Amino acid sequence: MKLINIWRHAQKVCVHKFWVGYYCFKAGLYWQGLVHDLSKFSPTEFIESVKFYQGDRSPIDACKEANGYSMAWLHHRGRNLHHYENWVDNFDHYFAGNKLTLLEMPYMYAVEMICDYLGAARAYYGTSFTYAKEHDWWVNIKRDNCAMAPHTKAFVDVCLRIMGCESSSALLVDRGRLRMLYDRCMCGETVDE
Questions:
Q1: In this structure, is residue 169 part of a structural domain?
Q2: How many structural domains is the chain composed of?
Q3: What range defines the domain where residue 146 resides?
Q4: What is the pLDDT along the chain (193 residues), one digit of tens a residue?
């Protein structure tokens, strides 16, 4: 483990936390903005992430590629409800040939997840970050490759689309509009904003 990676990883986590906090505060999620991802500083997450640190992508992904799993990820997702993976149930039924139960995320965690996506993009893209680039990542890489509940997925989709089109995070400040979009998506309405 390179000692310089301790500093680099800590710096990357702090940049990520800053941006997630920035977006959460815009959305009125003050407590979540303050405590977001504190588990990344726990020994379980920090040591593994330093070991697999690359700087341009998540060390958790690198660990999963090398080992097939990540203890840091198992620890992290179990303590942070803004990850959609926490909102899946009935794993035993899946192995019996049935589908997993995908649970819709509550509003505050769905919004924090969007802030998390934006914060990660800010940390990894740096000055080349754009809202359109984040929307492209969602559409071309993430959206169709995740076990997220359909109405939650629709909410993320519409929010990132709006932010990409407006080149702005102004949607997060307009809390009434944000909540209305969430409620409409949760009712299964198609939102064409």
A1: yes
A2: 1
A3: 3-37+80-186
A4: 688 999 999 999 999 999 999 999 999 999 999 999 999 999 999 999 999 999 999 999 999 999 999 999 999 999 999 999 999 998 887 777 778 899 999 999 999 999 999 999 999 999 999 999 999 999 999 999 999 999 999 999 999 999 999 999 999 999 999 999 999 999 999 988 7
